[in-house]
Design brief:
alpha+beta, 10% strand, single chain, four-stranded antiparallel β-sheet, 4 strands, 215 residues
Length: 215
Amino acid sequence: MFLKYLLFTALISNASSGVAMIKIANAAPSPSPLHNEVMVTLFGQPCLLAGPLDKDVLKAIHTISPEQTFIDPSTPSADSIHKVIEKIRNTKNTPSWLENYRVRRLKRLEALFAFTNGLSSAKAAKKSEPLLNAVKPLLSERLFKKFLALASEVGTKKSDPNFEIKLMDSFSEMIEPDPEEDFHRSIRRMNVRYSCEFADEGDSHDESSDEPGAP
């Protein structure tokens, strides 16, 4: 009886092993690395963005790229900055590799949005307090004192567009640094790159390391 039990156990064990072996043998091989390309525009030039990711992910990467979320410091407006903020927030399918870049980009843009709103209010009120109140929560005590000295002319007759641009430049250096290098570093790690064809040269050029800010 004991011998029959051992034989039965051995048969069950072998059968189980056989099933396992069949499952392993019939398992589908690992798929080859994905490679996709999407057509994009980079600084006015037609380019391909390529990499081992779904096309929707590649499109999302370009949508939140530094070039697509650039704010012209010579003509800043709260409305234009707000549109870029919403664009980043509403973009889906962004890879986790870009999360740090996305968070830092939003933090910087939100600070610039507060500045432009505060500046508009200060000009309307003809005094600097609305601007100072808007930026104070965003700066350390030391940097706020520095900004306070720079912003003394806001809302006065001495204030002019050139002064406002310089003031915004100074404020930009006090807040979250531009995370552009984070973007380029991250897409390289994902093996994603831009390849552009310049109309005046007629040849392809790899933009993966030549974009502004790429280390």
